[in-house]
Structures are given as C-alpha cells and as structure tokens.
Amino acid sequence: MSVGREPQGRVFVIVLDSLGVGALPDAERFGDGGAHTLDHIVEATGGLEVPHLIAAGLGHVPGVTAVPQVDRPSAGFGRMAEVSPGKDTPTGHWEMMNCPLQTEFPVYPEGFPAKFLEEWISRVGLQGYLENAAASGTEVIERRGPEHLRTGFPIVYTSADSVFQVAAHAESFGLERLYSICEVAREMLDPMRVGRVIARPFVGVEGSFTRTYDRRDYSMLPPGDTSLDRLMRAGVPVTGVGKIHDIFSGRGISTDIHTAGNADGMRRTLELASGAGEGLVFTNLVDFDSHYGHRRDPVGYRAALEEFDSSLGELLGHLREDDLVFLTADHGTDPTHPGVDHTREYVPILALGPRVRAGAELGTRTSFCDLGASVEEAFGLTPAPPGCSFLSELAAP
Q: Where are the domains of the chain?
C-alpha cells in the first residue's frame, strides 16, 4: 500500500523535546536570535555519534550544518516553522496536532500578583509561600529548599513561559498535597490564561536536593479541536507516552503511560511497537529539555541524543509494513544560548517507515500543523485545516 492512500495501522510520533534546528525569522523578538540547538550541541562537544539519525537524513534538514550528510537518506526530511505566538511546550504540541494558538499566553517575569497568591494560599490552607519570581528550577530549590523545610511554605516560581511552578518536598510536604494545591491554582489561573501549572516535587536534604519524575503538568485545554480529538471520534486509539496526557489535559487520549525520563519513555514505546496494538503512539522525551537544555548542558544533551539513537535503531526493527514514524520537536532549548529558557526555533521532521520514499524532501513547512494533518490522513481522515498533509510527498513510487 502507498503512504497516504489508505489508513495506516500504526503511527508513532516521537517528540525530542527542545531539539530545535535554527532560529525562526522572528526569534529576535523573543531574545533568541542566533539560536540553533542541534548545531550548537555538535559544535560545543566536538561531534555527535547518531548513526541511525544520520542515515535517516538529519544532516539534510534545512538549516542543519554541523551533522554530516549521506548519499541517500533513508527517511523523508524537512523542518517546520511555528506560527503560534510562543515557544512553550503546550503551544508547540497543540500546533503539531493541528491546533495553532492565536493569542500569546501572558507571562509574569516579575512574579504573580500578590492578590492572586494571597487568595490561593487562603484557599489551600497555607500560611505563606516562597520566592514568586522567574528562576531556574534546580537553583531555586537549592536556594530556598532549606527554608521550605523549616516553614512548610511551597516555592513558587516562573520562567519566560506562561507557567506557574510550585516546588515542594515530596516527603515533608507530601506529594498528593502538592498535586492538590496545584489543582486549585490551575482552576484559579484559567481566567488569567496562564498556560501551565507545574507541580515540581523534590527529595533529599540541604545541599543535595533532587527533583523527581513525579512532576505533573496542569495545562489549559487546547483552544480548539486537535488531531487527537478527531482521531478519537473516528475510533482510532491514541496512546500518550510521557507528559502527553498532561499537555492536552487528557483530552483526545485513550491510554496514558507515565514515564520516568527518556530511557523509560523509549522502553515503553518499544513495548508498544513490539505488540499487536493499533492507532497513534505519541511520545514526549522530556529529558532533552528539562535535564540538558534548561540546565545548559550540551555534553549531557549529546549523550542523551546518542542514547536515543540506539533506541531508534531498535524501534525501526519492530516496524510493521504499514507503520509510520515521525520524529520532531516542540521548540528549541539551545544549551549554549544565554539564560535558561526555551529558544524560538524551527524543528526537524523526519519520517521513517518501510513505505516511505527514501530521501523525500519535505522542505520548510509553514506550520507544525502539517504534521497533525499528515497523521490524520494516515488514519484515513480528511485532514482538517489549517494543516496541509505531506503524506503524498512521502509516497514511494
């Protein structure tokens, strides 16, 4: 069967969270001129040993100069531009599922309004809070963690994104209690259109605090129907691996698989690939962003990419005749760029599978929405606007 002409049995969308491939034309407005997550990792570390990604055509993605090219890429390759006004996780994921954001989320670089915080702590039965400023998550936990343990006050902070983050010690404060106060904050912040509330549990003692994988994101609902909603209505199973369920507030997800980082996310994806299931498997690999991009660690980022490449080789070995795999990202987080925030960049798109035409050039797509449209068409749906499916461009002759 040819790609895009009949419904597929399975599609895998794997988000290498934050693997940008060059600054978008409007990146200067976001303070991100010159950013290029992938190239700068390679340049900063002296290379990148990712044979499967290189064979697929990663070095042929427009704008990528630091990764070698091959004579005949095995995948379809290109890049996608973000039309939504932002560079955060929900915005990127919603757009790649064919639901662009029209109005930018508000941000609070000076902290959240005192009136909101006073009402929040009153409603959840707290006596106070700490910080309320833009901060690095790991740094603020080290700095304010001892006071948090003494007072029981949660640590509140934000970033360049529209996000209300609450850090608390999982043992002394309580994990379920942290989730509960974040759920109240989510409800209260909906009218303010804050994109996400994130529960940030940590453990340990002063001088050696560590964040855990029990993080939970409470996102606003997508502003309209997504590809996931349309697939579900058509009876196509949608499995979210990693934080996908949180990003979409559970909407359009039939099965949620929580993971503890990249390795676990790929392990669970490989289990699904080796099974007899159908439908969409949508995986987010968060460590690229949270452990290496935000922490400005190009060496760690490189090692994580190399580890992923090994898992990718295993995944390709499990593919059935009609399977499709799409590799992409949701934004950049250039670890060599000033600051600790996301960077507004193009993202790669690599399309792999037994029936994908080797070396298919997808060029520069004008929106992430084209990926969602392609997924919809792969399952026999007529893609909804504004996405423009590229499945026909992948079809083998």
A: 10-102+223-394, 114-219
Taking residues 180-202, report their average pLDDT: 96
**Taken in order 10, 16, 21, 24, is the CA torsion positive or negative?**
positive
CATH number 3.40.50.2000 is the correct assignment for the domain at 10-102+223-394: no
Give which of 137, 139, 125 is closest to 163, Cα–Cα: 137
CATH annotation of 114-219: 3.30.70.1250
Q: What is the mean pLDDT of the chain?
A: 95
| 3 has a pLDDT exceeding 60 | no
The structure tokens listed for 287 are 């460590």
pLDDT tens digits, one per residue of 192-206 = 999 999 999 999 999
Helix, strand counts (H, E) of the chain: 13, 14
Task: Tell me how far CA of residue 94 lies from CA of 37, 204, 238, 323, in angstroms.
Answer: 21, 35, 15, 23
What is the tens place of the pLDDT at every residue in 221-270?
Answer: 999 999 999 999 999 999 999 999 999 999 999 999 999 999 999 999 99
Burial class (CB in 10 A: 0-12, 13-18, 19+), 338: exposed
Do the domains 10-102+223-394 and 114-219 sit in the same CATH topology, yes or no? no
Q: Which residue matches tokens 């209300």?
A: 164
Rounded Cα distance, 114 and 116, in Å: 5
Give the chain's length.
Answer: 397
**DSSP string of 335-362, one letter each residue:** TTSSSSS-B-B-EEEEEESTTBPTT-EE
Instruction: Please identify which residue in the block is written with the tokens 């006004």.
Output: 85
CB 107, CB 88: distance < 8 Å: no
Strands (E), 143-286: 155-158, 163-169, 196-203, 210-211, 216-219, 238-241, 255-257, 279-285
The amino acid present at 261, given as its one-letter code, is G
